[in-house]
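This section describes the prediction task in plain terms. A model, or a person checking by hand, is given the sequence of a single protein chain and must write out its three-dimensional structure as a string of tokens. No templates, partner chains or ligands are provided. The sample shown here is typical of the held-out split.
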Amino acid sequence: ALSASVRFLTAGQRCWDWFAMRRGHVTASVASRFAALANMMLRCSADSVALRQLMDTAPHRLVDAWHGSFRGNPFTQAGNRNEPIVFSWVARSEFVLSLFEAGLAESRRHCWMATSPDGIGNV
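The expected answer:
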């Protein structure tokens, strides 16, 4: 069962408790920022000025990714705009027995890891 794998911390998204509980968790948004920084570092020569500049800013970037407020990007903004339409469309599918909104779910096995699905369906 889902409750054996995750602990729901919030009932919804983009509310005060959702923003507060995201801090300190590695979500897909945080992981992508960590990976982007690592990718930028890998592209630099070992003795380059660019790598030294990245290393100088890395602590700030990582703290901001981990504890900063996620401001969104064009993809999340489009998703937020279309979410009610898609949710309604999925709910009407003959294969979906039930569909409900979800907030922030923390892994029971790895408490630092969390996910924020737009919805959870029973098919």
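For orientation: Residues 41 and 54 are 7 Å apart (CA to CA).
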